[in-house]
Amino acid sequence: MSPIAVIDFETTGISPGMGDRATEVAIVMLEGGQVVDRYQSLMNAGVRVNSFITQLTGITNEMLQAAPPADQVMREAARFVGGRPMVAHNASFDKKFWQDELSRCGQDASHPFACTVLLSRRLYPQAPNHQLGTLAAYHHLPSTGRAHRALADAETAAYLLAQMQHDLQARHGCGRVDHALLMGLQRVSRHAVGAFLRQRAASPVLESGL
DNA sequence: TGCCAGGCCCTCTTTAGGGCCTT
Predict the structure, then answer these.
(1) Would you say the C-beta of A176 is within 7 Å of strand B?
(2) Å from A23 (CA) to B23 (C1')?
(3) Nearest to A5 by CA among A106, A165, A113
(4) Which of A5, A65, A162, A186 could be disulfide-bonded to A33 (CB atoms 3.0-4.6 Å)?
(5) A121 beta carbon < 7 A from strand B?
């Protein structure tokens, strides 16, 4: 199965449109249910983090001052991802920062994003909630380190995605759980999930996205 | 002057409102 790039950003806030910038990025490659490669770096975008962000993430202004420039890090990140499809937990958030940071250094950011929050809402409606930490505990995912650091959260999201791929195959009979299937699943309404999965299980040709 | 994300989803809905999820 083709690799999928699972990404997580730490940032100064929630909106690049309001001037927020990325402070750390991590990307893990998931292939065949296994993490096969990793990229992680703090980045110096010339901005400061407030005490709330430092308390949440453990990332300090001293750490950012010593970090490589943001444009250098983002070029490396883009090279690492290449043309692979991407996944993030609450992808609308990470996609905004991916596009904003890459546009600042003239890089293409047209990668398709699948979202583990949308997928979790469809596959695990019985979960207490769909926060990353809650889902990690709910599925007994491997411990990855401090939450709210980019690499730990990206690895947790990757393990969550691997769990989803496993469940789609084992419980729903989907043969090949590729990125195209994930994009299709997250687009259907909650009420249409069962019909969508039955159709995919019965039509393996469609699963390749062809 | 005051306010300031935004896409998704549910419901006491659809000419709307509010919660979730990310930092």
Answers:
(1) no
(2) 10
(3) A113
(4) A162
(5) yes
Using the predicted structure, report yes or no on whether residue A80 has a pLDDT greater than 90: yes
Could you tell me the distance in Å between the CA of residue A129 and the C1' of nucleotide B19? 12
Stretch A160-174: mean pLDDT, rounded? 92
Q: Is the pTM of this model over 0.90?
A: yes
- The full set of domain ranges for chain A reads 4-202
CA(A90)–C1'(B18) in Å?
19
**Fold of the domain spanning A4-202:** Nucleotidyltransferase; domain 5 (3.30.420)
What is the side-by-side order of every strand in the sheet holding A86-88? A34-42, A22-31, A4-11, A86-88, A113-115
Does A90 have pLDDT greater than 60?
yes
Give the separation between CA A111 and CA A191, rounded to whole angstroms. Answer: 28
